Amino acid sequence: LVSIGNICRSPIAEAVFRKLVSDEKLEHKWRTDSAAVSDWNVGRFPDSRALSCLRNHGIETAHKARQITKEDFQTFDHILCMDESNLRDLNRKSNQVKDCKAKIELLGTYDPQKQLIIEDPYYGNEKDFETVYEQCVRCCKAFLDKYH
């Protein structure tokens, strides 16, 4: 799960997906992680508003931001991102990787409510983080249902 900085949207999506997988007792079938296309926030914890939003829904995460690697394209089956800018960056990076096996898509492709883009809540407020959370829940459930 990829976003630009890996401190708002992608850690929320990672934590949501990890919880869904755990609830379904499918941990043995899934390896879940999140990363950034940029190196701006490497090593930082998620935004405090993202952590607060997750905690409000009973979800904890210890994720620290990292940048996507060449190996990610070679080892993950799916790389899901949040917006078209991420998609362009990931497609460009994947073209430089031999043996890229990852299918790169927008996470919003799986949204039953057809909201394709998950907007960055960084400059918004708690309500915007809640919107991201709700989108991630819908999309991650649909994705898991498709591939489970």
TrEMBL record:
Keyword Hydrolase among record annotations: yes
EC numbers for this chain: 3.1.3.2, 3.1.3.48
Predominant cellular place of this UniProt entry's protein: cytoplasm
GO cellular component, one term: cytoplasm
Alphabetized GO MF terms: acid phosphatase activity; non-membrane spanning protein tyrosine phosphatase activity
Start and end residues of each Phosphotyrosine protein phosphatase I domain: 2-146
Record: active site: R9, D120
Any Pfam family hit: LMWPc
Compartmental location: Cytoplasm
Claim: Hydrolase is one of the keywords in the record: yes
Reaction(s) catalysed by this chain's protein: O-phospho-L-tyrosyl-[protein] + H2O = L-tyrosyl-[protein] + phosphate; a phosphate monoester + H2O = an alcohol + phosphate
Superkingdom of the organism of origin: Eukaryota
Keywords, in A-Z order: Cytoplasm, Hydrolase, Protein phosphatase
SUPFAM superfamilies named in the record: Phosphotyrosine protein phosphatases I
Family the entry assigns: Belongs to the low molecular weight phosphotyrosine protein phosphatase family.
Known function: Acts on tyrosine phosphorylated proteins, low-MW aryl phosphates and natural and synthetic acyl phosphates.
PANTHER family (UniProt xref): LOW MOLECULAR WEIGHT PHOSPHOTYROSINE PROTEIN PHOSPHATASE, LOW MOLECULAR WEIGHT PROTEIN TYROSINE PHOSPHATASE
Protein name (database record): Low molecular weight phosphotyrosine protein phosphatase
Name of encoding gene: Acp1
